[in-house]
Amino acid sequence: MKKVISVHSRFRGRATVVIAAMTLAALAVGPLSSGAVVKASHRSTSAASAHVTKAVKTVSLKGICPNPVVIATDWTPEAEQGAYYQLAASGGTTSTSSKTYTAPLLDPNTGKSTGVQVELLAGGPALGYLQTPEVLTTQTNVLMGADDSDNAIADAGTTPVVGIVAPFNNSVHIILWNPAKFSIKSFADVKSSGATVLYFSGTEFVEYMAGAGYLNSSQLDSSYNGSPARFVASGGGVMEQGFATAEPYLYTHETPSWDQTISYELTSNTGYNPYSEMGEATPTNLKKYASCFKKLVPMIQQSQISYLKSPNRVNKLIVGLNTSYGEIGGNYDMAVAQYADRTMLADRIVSQGSGGFGSFSLPRVNTNITQLRPVLNTNGQSLPANFNANQVVTNKFINSKIKFTSYKGPYNTTTGVITVVGTNG
Question: Is the separation of the CB atoms in 288 and 142 below 8 Å?
């Protein structure tokens, strides 16, 4: 079994606990360029809409899906879970004890109730840091959950789950550094710099990078605990793993002891590119509730697009829930949520793939399985020799007519270094 903190156990929450809040601001990302630079701004960007068949009436889930539809998220509420929170109406019931939000489940095409409730279950510290596959296999009332696809691969031998929708087309993970200390143009420079890279023990993408030659094993320091303290104390003399949608903004605008410019590169540029925030279910639920997923999955596809088109309602809900839950996953304000939304689009983390929006590329998943085998073997885990993408993801519920094509930018470069300018320069 993996350690408590792993690939997508939201180590960001540990970091944001010690980061102060700031005044709300709308953020815009920089244009596509080599070494794109991102600055804070009050300019808004237009987000995406979908080219889908016009909905004639609201889809009913009554008598088809369990009521409520319980969805386990991988951390406390955040913008990255927007596809799932978009399904929930405002004005629902918040349980501060169970860390759940329950409301009518809305059809994203009409904004009207589907006849059932949705219950969104906070993860991470709210569930004792259980991984989503563990939650799905031990809590039978939970219909589905959200997690990274490489977690599903790693856990296949003990807590098998199957991905059914991919709201994120690309991984959200990054390596970040202080550009005043390190002149980095690509991951090759990260290796040649010899800099220490802080990461959580058991984080597969970092260990893959070392095994594949993108980093030297001698650079790895698995003592990272999510706090920016060591980064700050070193004067930015170390590098860290992080999320494109969080740490770049937190370190440059909400860490008073730093608030200086940082740079990062998406780890997907190494070819290691799992699907972040993948919707998944157990094989048992996949079979038992197939008729439900046939209707629900296209709603999640559309829900992600609808959320990014107009995120304000859901962001207010997410920020409010974090406050109600006592900010156990760390402070989360509107400025961070707004930055996350724009970065999802600007970094092409949410983008149109080769099939219907939210579908999986089976060759890509098979590549990730091949990449993970040596890492898992080193960590005392293993996969059957014939294990393949068809056992961990499926496109059977995807509506191939749903596309995500109308967002036209601005974009950051996603094939190189991205720089975020800090409050203190």
Answer: no
Give 184-205 pLDDT, tens digit per residue.
Answer: 999 999 999 999 999 988 888 9
Burial of 42 per CB tally in 10 Å (0-12, 13-18, 19+):
exposed
Provide the token pair at 302: 């559309």
Distance CA 375, CA 241 (A): 17
Of 277, 337, 283, 302, residue with least CA distance to 145: 277
| The CA-based dihedral angle spanning residues 375, 378, 380, 385, taken in that order and rounded to the nearest 10 degrees | 60
Strand partners for 70? 119
Count CA atoms within 13 Å of residue 63 on its CB side: 2
Q: Which of 199, 356, 368, 124 is nearest to 268 (CA)?
A: 368
Residue pair 272/418 in contact by the 8 Å Cβ criterion: no
Query: What is the C-alpha to C-alpha distance for residues 414 and 148, in angstroms, rounded to an integer?
Result: 20
What's the pLDDT tens digit per position in 274-316?
A: 999 999 999 999 999 999 999 999 999 999 999 999 999 999 9
